[in-house]
Amino acid sequence: MNTTIKQLKLFDVPVEQKEYLLIISPSESVKKKIYDIKKDFGVKFKSNHALHSLAHISILGKRLKEEHENSFMKRIETVCKDYRPFEIKLNGFNGFPSHTIYTEVTKNDYLQHLHYDLLESLSLSSRMTFTPHLTIARQLKPNQFEAALPEYLSKSFHQSFVTESLLLMKREGEFTRYQKVTEFRFGR
């Protein structure tokens, strides 16, 4: 019994809740380029945490009971039907002090509106800052971050892709891998 209680505290998510992540998945060619950048970063700065996750842009995350999954998905689907495929541009690098290096998503009003409409449809707070990005390295130690950021700020990186859908991912808890639940295609 005590082991179970400790495990629940470790994951910080009650057993009956799952973690959901709604993402944009880039084109295969962009995924390959991002993987190569992550790999080079890992070798140079001795950090491989980001290598284990697929390249993606997080739109929102939510913890909820699995029994609410269908309602959650229907709301997302309703919003996505009102949107058309759109272009995402990646431009340069930046960081979240002092732990993450990422490639920036160029300001995109369409993406901002999509994010807001999803939050509204799902009754989630819109007060949080939305900084769309694609992670290159995460869980950095401060000295790794301080060494890498100036170098990456000076690097040029320009890619674009058209996104036609959002992917819903789910996992049991913090230390488990996300699995694809479904894809929400934008209306045509």
Q: How is this structure best described in words?
A:
- The protein is α+β, with helices and mostly antiparallel strands and 188 residues long.
- It has helices at residues 2-11, 28-45, 69-81, 109-121, 142-153, and strands spanning 17-24, 57-65, 86-96, 100-105, 133-137, 158-163, 165-171, 179-185.
- A four-stranded antiparallel beta sheet has the order 2-1-7-8, covered by helices on one side. A four-stranded antiparallel beta sheet has the order 5-4-3-6.
- Helix 3 (69-81) packs antiparallel against helix 4 (109-121).
- The protein is globular, with a radius of gyration of 18 Å.
Q: State the low-pLDDT regions, or none.
A: 1-11
Order of helices and strands: HEHEHEEHEHEEE
Q: Looking across the biggest beta sheet, what order are the strands in?
A: 2-1-7-8
Distance N terminus to C terminus? 52 Å
The helical percent reads 25-40%
Using only CA atoms, what is the Rg? 18 Å
Secondary structure tally: strands: 8
Q: Counting H and I runs of at least 4 residues, what is the number of helices?
A: 5
| Main sheet summary | 4 strands, antiparallel
